[in-house]
Structures are given as structure tokens and as C-alpha cells.
């Protein structure tokens, strides 16, 4: 059966949040209330830039045509 790529939120994101919240609950950390695919993209970019990755590389990973756009967003 072909995967329905338009249901990524239901198939992947929601179950991942449920699993993460189970672990967070055990450690006393507040649960994740809202998560979006766009939010994950932004978090990925921010963490990679903060870790010292080349903005050109991060831009390519995100599919942006310009590193300046990546750094602005």
C-alpha cells in the first residue's frame, strides 16, 4: 500500500508527540501541546545554525534557494 504523503501529520507527527509526551511525563517535564511540521522545520534550521553549521548547507537541506532567506526566516 502506497503511503499517503498528505497524512504525515496523522501518521507520523501525532504518534511521535504522544510517545514524547509519555517520556516527558515520566520526567516531570510539561507535555508538548502543539506541534506542526513547519515548526519542526524552523526548529531544525535554528538548531543547525546555532550548532555552527554552514548556512548554505542548512539552506540546501530546507530546499531554500538562498541562504539569506534561511537566515531571515
What is the overall silhouette?
A: flat
Helix and strand content put the structural class at: mainly alpha
Terminal Cα span: 37 Å
Please describe the biggest sheet, giving its number of strands, its sense, and whether it closes into a barrel.
none
| Proportion in helices | 55-70%
Order of helices and strands: HHHH
Oligomerization status of the protein chains: single chain
Q: Average pLDDT, to the nearest integer? A: 90
- Cα-atom radius of gyration: 15 Å
SS element count, helices = 4
Question: What number of domains?
Answer: 1
Q: Could you walk me through the main structural features you see in this protein, from its secondary elements to its overall organization?
A:
The protein is mainly alpha-helical and 73 residues long. The chain has one domain. It has helices at residues 8-27, 37-50, 55-62, 67-72. The model has no long low-confidence stretch (mean pLDDT 90).
Quick overview of this protein structure:
By secondary structure, the protein is mostly helical.
Amino acid at each position: 500500500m502506497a503511503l499517503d504523503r498528505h497524512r504525515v501529520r496523522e501518521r507520523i507527527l501525532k504518534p511521535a508527540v504522544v510517545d514524547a509526551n509519555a517520556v516527558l511525563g515520566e520526567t516531570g517535564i510539561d507535555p508538548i501541546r502543539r506541534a506542526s511540521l513547519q515548526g519542526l522545520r524552523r526548529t531544525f534550521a535554528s538548531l543547525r545554525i546555532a550548532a555552527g553549521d554552514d548556512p548554505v548547507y542548512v539552506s540546501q537541506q530546507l530546499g531554500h534557494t538562498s541562504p539569506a532567506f534561511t537566515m531571515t526566516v
